[in-house]
Design brief:
This is Cytochrome C. One of its GO terms (molecular function) is heme binding. Pfam families: Cytochrome_CBB3. InterPro entries: Cyt_c-like_dom (IPR009056), Cyt_c-like_dom_sf (IPR036909). With 115 residues, the chain is mainly alpha-helical. The protein has a single domain, classed as Cytochrome Bc1 Complex, Chain D, domain 2 (Orthogonal Bundle). 55% of the residues lie in helices and 0% in strands. It contains 5 helices and no strands. It starts with a helix and ends in a 14-residue tail after the last helix. The relative contact order is 0.13.
């Protein structure tokens, strides 16, 4: 096998886990990113802190595309940084949809529902 072929296949196999993660349905790492990185300003339960609350009731007036734009570009003049250098458009879109739906709120931080 030639040197070029070795390098090619090494590159393919080196990138394979990244591609599989990006295409897969296991978003555990992305959920952890939201809780840790976003939670450091927006509160670990996303109820607010330095930044505003990121719960469905607080986000209902914003379309998911607007939330995605804020995540991607940040908010100039505030502590909200742009995340476009670290997250793909797919990941940003997924986060914005999850925030809108409340899916990233941990069970212990959800409001009690009377039954």
């Amino acid at each position: 096998m030639g040197e070029w072929n070795k390098r090619f296949w090494f590159g393919v196999f080196a990138l394979l886990p990244t591609v599989l993660w990006a295409e897969g349905s296991d978003y555990t790492e992305l959920q952890n990113f939201v809780i840790q990185d976003c939670g450091s300003c927006h509160g670990l339960t996303l109820k607010g802190g330095l930044g505003p609350a990121l719960r469905p009731g607080n986000l209902e007036a914003l379309p998911a595309a607007a939330i995605a734009a804020i995540i991607r570009e940040g908010v100039p003049g505030t502590a909200m940084p742009p995340w476009k250098a670290l997250l793909t458009d797919h990941e940003i879109r997924w986060i914005s949809e999850q925030l809108k739906s409340g899916a990233l709120i941990t069970p212990q931080s959800r409001p009690e529902v009377a039954q």
